[in-house]
């Protein structure tokens, strides 16, 4: 009997470490699937919402200056060291990190992700999330503008007319999203990435962007306990 395991990744699309962790999880999945071609355990990635900065405005502000002030007390030296580090990490996983453009509230991005994940499934949601990450972190675009969201839904194969109904209605999916965000708080999730792999016997979890081999161990453990 095939056991289907969800890999729940809690994300905020403005978090570079979450983008990196997602790529590492995908690489770990490829390794496990190659090592166990006849494995009765299948894995599916699902996304849960989290807002690192829920009070950020919707219009946005300069991301580089904002991040430098928030994380590094306006130290240009520390900010430059960070960009060099993240660029090196990203290059290993096909991510061309850039650090300009606007940072803004991600509520609408989460609203769209959760709506279409529920309506159209994990594969569509994965393409949508990939586009949102790439647009923000590699192309310096607004994380949740109408233009960004329409581009992401198009990349996921969602017709523009269907996507626009959700994007243009700020109430669409909002109640469900707020419930999911509250659930995260109740469960003690206070940072991203936060990854939970559902197992037949127990759920396994990791917090923070870990190395690929740590994700492989988590997936292998789930395979062993699900057989």
Automatic annotation (TrEMBL):
Gene Ontology molecular functions: oxidoreductase activity
Superkingdom assignment: Eukaryota
InterPro entries listed in its UniProt record: DSBA-like_thioredoxin_dom, Thioredoxin-like_sf
Pfam families xref list: DSBA
Limits of the DSBA-like thioredoxin domain: 7-219
Record's protein name: DSBA-like thioredoxin domain-containing protein
């Amino acid at each position: 009997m095939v056991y289907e395991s969800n890999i729940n990744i809690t994300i905020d699309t403005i978090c570079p470490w979450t983008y990196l962790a997602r790529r590492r999880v995908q690489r770990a999945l490829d390794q496990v699937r190659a090592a166990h071609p006849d494995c009765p355990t299948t894995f599916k990635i699902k996304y849960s919402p989290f807002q690192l900065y829920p009070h950020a405005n919707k219009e946005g502000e300069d991301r580089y200056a904002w991040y430098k002030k928030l994380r590094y007390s306006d130290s240009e030296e520390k900010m430059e060291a960070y960009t060099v580090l993240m660029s090196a990490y990203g290059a290993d996983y096909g991510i061309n990190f850039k650090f300009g453009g606007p940072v803004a509230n991600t509520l609408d991005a989460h609203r769209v992700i959760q709506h279409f994940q529920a309506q159209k499934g994990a594969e569509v949601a994965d393409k949508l999330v990939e586009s949102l990450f790439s647009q923000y972190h590699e192309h310096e675009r607004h994380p949740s503008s109408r233009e960004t969201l329409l581009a992401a839904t198009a990349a996921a194969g969602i017709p523009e007319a269907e996507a626009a109904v959700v994007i243009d209605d700020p109430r669409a999916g909002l109640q469900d999203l707020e419930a999911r965000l509250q659930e995260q708080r109740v469960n003690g999730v206070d940072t991203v990435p936060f990854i939970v792999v559902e197992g037949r016997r127990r759920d396994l979890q990791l917090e923070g962007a870990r190395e690929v081999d740590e994700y492989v161990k988590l997936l292998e453990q789930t395979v062993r306990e699900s057989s």
